[in-house]
Specification:
The structure is a single chain. The chain is an alpha/beta fold. The chain has a single domain, classed as Glutaredoxin (3-Layer(aba) Sandwich). Strands 5-4-3-8-9 form a five-stranded mixed β-sheet. A two-stranded antiparallel ribbon has the order 1-2. α1 runs antiparallel to α5 and α5 packs parallel to α10.
Length: 217
């Protein structure tokens, strides 16, 4: 099953069961975020990818420059392990990992969650690629992906156990829009996928194709 199909199925089920007031609040926040032109300002293909050195869930630090010494790097920004759409994407990336590696690529996923929360995400989803903690969403901000969660949504997130200050270990309500970048060995972004609609993610087959194209070149 394609990732897109799984995401659409989950969203349909959620929207069918969510109270009308929550659906309306989510719709208003989505419209406001789309109107902000965050996607238009974020880094795209052809831009230089900012280097980063971030704590990994199991310990130690992972740096983008080090990943690129091995081959093209896939960098996936996700909202957090609390996000079911992100979990579906992370598990799909895990399934694609052997093909990414076979073509000489590396893979890392980043969220603003604490290292402890990242470790829980790794364990819950059986992930074997680096999962990194991006404190304050600083790296996501360097890529132009960060926004402040709408005030209207904060009590809703808190009600469902997803208060971002607790998850991320700071006082902010900052999140990245989900995004996937494929970066060539020179540090240039070869492929960028980002969407303010958090239920849309890049298909793993397209990631594998991008990595293969860079390896062939």
């Amino acid at each position: 099953m394609q990732l897109r199909t799984e995401l659409e199925r989950f969203r349909a089920d959620f929207m069918a069961s969510a109270p009308p007031e929550i659906r309306a609040a989510l719709a208003r926040a989505d419209l406001d975020l789309a109107a902000s032109d965050l996607v238009g300002r974020a880094l795209k293909a052809g831009d230089a990818a900012p280097d980063f050195a971030l704590p990994e869930a199991h310990g130690g630090t992972v740096r983008l420059a080090a990943l690129l010494t091995e081959g093209p790097a896939v960098v996936s920004f996700y909202r957090g392990g609390w996000c079911p759409y992100c979990s579906l994407e992370l598990r799909a990336l895990q399934q694609a990992l052997p093909e990414i590696r076979r073509r000489g690529g590396t893979l890392a996923a980043l969220s603003p969650e604490t290292r402890g929360q990242s470790f829980a995400t790794v364990a819950r989803n059986g992930l074997t690629f680096p999962v990194l903690s991006d404190p304050g969403a600083a790296t996501a901000a360097a890529f132009g992906l960060v926004f402040d969660l709408a005030n209207e949504l904060r009590p809703i997130f808190t009600h469902f156990g997803h208060a971002l200050p607790d998850r991320n270990g700071d006082d902010s309500w900052r999140l990245p829009i989900p995004a996937t970048y494929v970066v060539d060995r020179q540090g240039t972004i070869a492929l960028a996928f980002l969407d303010v609609d958090y239920s849309r993610r890049l298909e793993p087959a397209e990631i594998i194709a991008a990595v293969a194209a860079l390896a062939a070149g």
